Amino acid sequence: MSRVFLIPLVIVLFHLVCATSSEIADKKKTPPGTTVHIISGVPDNPTKLRVNCTYEGADFQERTLNDGQEFSWGHSDNFFVDYMFVCKFDWGTKTRTFPVLSMRTRPILCAHTIYPCDCYWDARADGFYFSNDKKSWKKMYEW
């Protein structure tokens, strides 16, 4: 196949994928892309979990979560724009900050899921666990 036909073919395929993803999202009433879920799996003693997430300098406002409580947000994926969501976690004397989603980590975190993707982060007493199905969890970070 000549290179002249390859570029239009890629453009058409890209538009088909975007249109299909939008139709699926409309049916589910969720934004296309990735949804990040932050879950508190730590006991409320000595203190409750405090989480402060930022995106490109915009602060999501600090949240205090009870054990078992979660908050989430959706992000429409744009494969041509670099993005990074960073969260700072505080629990008693323990503190940890790391990116919960970025353009570079999304393909790894969501490698085995159907689009759109859910990223679950569970803060536990021994560290931070990740899942994209809320069933199988992998420890990713220590406190």
From TrEMBL:
<dbReference type="GO" id="GO:0005576">
    <property type="term" value="C:extracellular region"/>
</dbReference>
<protein>
    <recommendedName>
        <fullName>S-protein homolog</fullName>
    </recommendedName>
</protein>
<keyword id="KW-0732">Signal</keyword>
<keyword id="KW-0964">Secreted</keyword>
<keyword id="KW-0713">Self-incompatibility</keyword>
<dbReference type="Pfam" id="PF05938">
    <property type="entry name" value="Self-incomp_S1"/>
</dbReference>
<comment type="similarity">
    <text>Belongs to the plant self-incompatibility (S1) protein family.</text>
</comment>
<dbReference type="InterPro" id="IPR010264">
    <property type="entry name" value="Self-incomp_S1"/>
</dbReference>
<dbReference type="GO" id="GO:0060320">
    <property type="term" value="P:rejection of self pollen"/>
</dbReference>
<feature type="signal peptide">
    <location>
        <begin position="1"/>
        <end position="19"/>
    </location>
</feature>
